[in-house]
Amino acid sequence: MPVRFLKNASELADVSMESPLPVQVANAKPVPADTLLIATTPVTTAANRDLLGYTATEVPTLDNCMQYRKLVWVYFRQGDADTNYRILARATDISGIPLGSGWQELVPPTTLPGGANSWNRIEIPATTDGYYDQYRIEVWRTAGSDYILVSKLIGVR
Amino acid sequence: MSAERITRREMLKRLVVAPVGAAALATLPVREGSAAALQPYYEPYFVAVLWEGRTRCDSLWRSLKGDVVAILPTVQGTTPYDRLYWTGYALGSAPVNVNMRVLARAVDHNGVPLGAGWRPVGQATIQTPPLRWFRVEIPEGHWDEYRIEVRSATPRLVYSRVIASQGYWKE
User: Fold this and answer.
1) CA-based nearest distance A110→chain B, Å
2) Residues B157, B54: Cα–Cα separation, whole Å
3) Domains and CATH numbers, chain B
């Protein structure tokens, strides 16, 4: 008597070489992406202002990010004023204290993509792996009027 | 391989009528340790079925779920997934010529979109001879919601399955 199993939601299949019993890969586990931050930021001309609104340059926007290979920054910008962004990163010691002052500049001041009422996405870092402990994301407009930027940052392992 | 489509109720009835026993397992037509043998060739991703069903395509942009309400997502809760795969099969005797587009957006902790509208992730035309399979890979992952829309000048029935794969962490 053949043995059958539920292959998907509604398909009953015989066990065979082409249709083996489902197995889970050993020594591996899925890693869900984590939502790290959802922030609403008034974008102004204030220099060094991060997504949380802080202008103190030593304050990170995100902390404890060492486990994340990459951050995905998705945002909805309500205005189309010319805007720059800058992404900084650094490492900390085991107490969470930065190894030194200042930051490594991952992305120098760059035009923030998108127009009014548009969705956009930026991967941090764009090509290499992350694994930094802290990140700071700054946005400021260089022309036009203030507007609201709604952001979500997702950590991907 | 033989397969048939049945309901869960029918499956349970069959399992009750014909339980699988140890004797039957010993005569399975599979190689010993086949799971381990297959492992090197198995893509070690974790895959979830997000949606499956059929869509009546017409000249309107419709979600795979059939609606034309642009604010409704086709699939939700997709934050963990690296990429999505849409596998489909179009019925009808005429060559397949279906337009498709994929939209995405993010939501806050309450499930409310961060803003209005969608981000256009991609757009394409699916052109195949009649009664063929097609597959669309959506590589821009980690959005919370996707809306997959189709339209066809020739009304057509499309069977679809949308799955998503996660990254994995090797221990």
Assistant:
1) 21
2) 7
3) 8-39 (no CATH), 44-166 (2.60.120.380)
